């Protein structure tokens, strides 16, 4: 009989309300430090003491593990070339792939990038939250050029997670924070996912990531919004909220933002998309009523809800990848709402990887 993993998150939304922050259906509660343990001993509850320690580590030039509402980040001082270089080295990330810069406020963002009226409108609607804008760097922008891969633009956002915001307030400097995993692997949505891959001084444990997908990335070019990466906020929601169209990317072969590499977010096992049947040796990533016959079933959303599925995607991919299933079969997911971002991640996860 197949092992069945049902989703624990019944409802999520991407609105940021710090006073009503929830992880899944449960209120956010800091974890008792005495109850936290992992194989490397680096996971820490997000107490004020731990946040101050993490800030000291950042100021000393070393990266830390940071929860956000999207995925866990490998955070470093964005204005230090050495600290940013450590992030690339730890992740084994190609240096042509830029990083997202996290800031505490719109005012801090305006010291780094030029924000036209349209960019300001987007920020006022969706920051803090899972939306990144790619904007022109100011001439005196202190962020390391390595973080922006030498481009004249910067990918920037304000995170909504209270732990990330507390750390940003404590360090009072921009933070570069790509996903806290080895480059190309499944993104981490739990602190243990980070500890399993990276040996770093501290990982602040903010619980499971509420959104569970990386941020939506928009390039703001004059009076045009261009979708560089689908993510935690659906395009239709952006267009409805601000009354402005979001155009597709016309040159997808040129990397201008994170998450655009063809092979990305990949498990170690083979992955097969749009499965209409499943072998007895395969694990099934289900959506809605599962197909029969799988060795193990992880159901992204029993009710076929794409928001719930997005929140569960990476955690369930981690679980299937750690199982003894020979491969992973993925049921079809509608390409609407957050389904667009889910399918983007799955297509990149299934793409052939360069083994050289």
List the helices and strands and how they pair.
Layout: E1 3-5, E2 22-23, E3 26-27, E4 43-44, H1 48-59, E5 64-66, E6 73-77, H2 81-91, E7 100-102, H3 106-109, H4 117-126, E8 131-136, E9 153-157, H5 162-171, E10 175-176, H6 191-197, E11 203-204, E12 216-221, E13 224-229, H7 235-242, E14 246-248, E15 271-272, E16 282-286, E17 296-299, H8 306-321, E18 327-330, H9 339-350
Parallel strand pairs: 1-17, 4-11, 7-9, 8-12, 13-14, 15-18, 16-17, 16-18
Antiparallel strand pairs: 2-3, 5-6, 6-10, 7-10, 8-9, 12-13
Helix pairs in contact: 1-5
Attribute tags:
25% helix; 9-stranded mixed sheet; 2 domains; 5-stranded parallel sheet; alpha/beta; 18% strand; 356 residues; Rossmann fold; DHBP synthase; globular; 9 helices
Describe the structure concisely for a colleague.
By secondary structure, the chain is of the alpha/beta class. It has helices at residues 48-59, 81-91, 106-109, 117-126, 162-171, 191-197, 235-242, 306-321, 339-350; strands at 3-5, 22-23, 26-27, 43-44, 64-66, 73-77, 100-102, 131-136, 153-157, 175-176, 203-204, 216-221, 224-229, 246-248, 271-272, 282-286, 296-299, 327-330.
**At the fourth CATH level, what is the homologous superfamily of the largest domain?**
DHBP synthase
CATH topology heading of the largest domain: DHBP synthase
User: What is the average per-residue confidence, as pLDDT, rounded to a whole number?
Assistant: 87
Number of strands: 18
Oligomer: single chain
Shape: globular
Low-confidence stretches: 8-41
Number of domains: 2
- From the N-terminal CA to the C-terminal CA, the straight-line distance is 39 Å
What is the H/E string? Answer: EEEEHEEHEHHEEHEHEEEHEEEEHEH
In CATH, what is the class of the largest domain? Answer: Alpha Beta
What is the spatial order of strands in the main beta sheet? 5-6-10-7-9-8-12-13-14
Broad structural category: alpha/beta
How many helical elements?
Answer: 9
Q: Rg from C-alpha positions?
A: 19 Å
Q: What is the helix fraction of residues, given as a range? A: 25-40%
CATH architecture descriptor text of the largest domain: Alpha-Beta Complex
């Amino acid at each position: 009989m197949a092992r069945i993993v049902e989703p624990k998150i019944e409802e999520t939304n991407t609105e940021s309300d710090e006073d009503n922050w929830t992880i899944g259906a449960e209120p956010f509660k800091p974890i008792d430090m005495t109850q936290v343990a992992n194989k490397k001993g680096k996971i820490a509850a997000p107490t004020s003491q731990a946040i101050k320690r993490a800030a000291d580590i950042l100021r000393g030039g070393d990266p830390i593990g940071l929860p956000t509402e999207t995925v866990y980040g490998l955070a470093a001082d964005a204005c230090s070339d050495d600290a940013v270089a450590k992030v690339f080295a730890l992740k084994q990330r190609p240096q042509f792939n830029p990083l997202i810069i996290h800031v505490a406020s719109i005012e801090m963002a305006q010291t780094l990038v030029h924000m036209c009226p349209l960019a300001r409108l987007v920020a006022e609607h969706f920051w803090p939250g899972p939306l990144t804008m790619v904007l022109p760097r100011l001439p005196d922008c202190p962020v390391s050029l390595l973080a922006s891969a030498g481009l004249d633009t910067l990918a920037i956002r304000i995170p909504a997670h209270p732990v990330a915001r507390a750390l940003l307030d404590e360090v009072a400097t921009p933070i570069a924070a790509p996903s806290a995993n080895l480059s190309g692997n499944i993104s981490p949505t739990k602190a243990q996912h980070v500890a399993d891959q990276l040996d770093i001084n501290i990982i602040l444990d903010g619980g499971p990531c509420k959104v569970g997908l990386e941020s939506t990335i928009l390039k703001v070019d004059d009076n045009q919004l261009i979708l560089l990466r689908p993510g935690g906020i659906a395009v239709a929601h952006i267009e409805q909220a601000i009354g402005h169209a979001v155009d597709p990317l016309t040159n997808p072969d040129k990397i201008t933002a994170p998450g655009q590499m063809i092979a990305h977010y990949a498990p170690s096992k083979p992955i097969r998309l749009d499965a209409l049947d499943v072998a007895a040796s395969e694990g099934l990533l289900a959506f809605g009523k599962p197909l029969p016959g799988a060795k193990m079933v992880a159901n992204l959303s029993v009710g076929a809800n794409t928001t719930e599925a997005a929140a569960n995607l990476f955690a369930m991919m981690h679980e299937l990848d750690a199982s003894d299933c020979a491969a992973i079969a993925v049921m079809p997911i509608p390409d609407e709402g957050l389904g667009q971002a889910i399918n983007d991640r799955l297509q990149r996860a299934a793409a052939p990887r360069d083994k050289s």
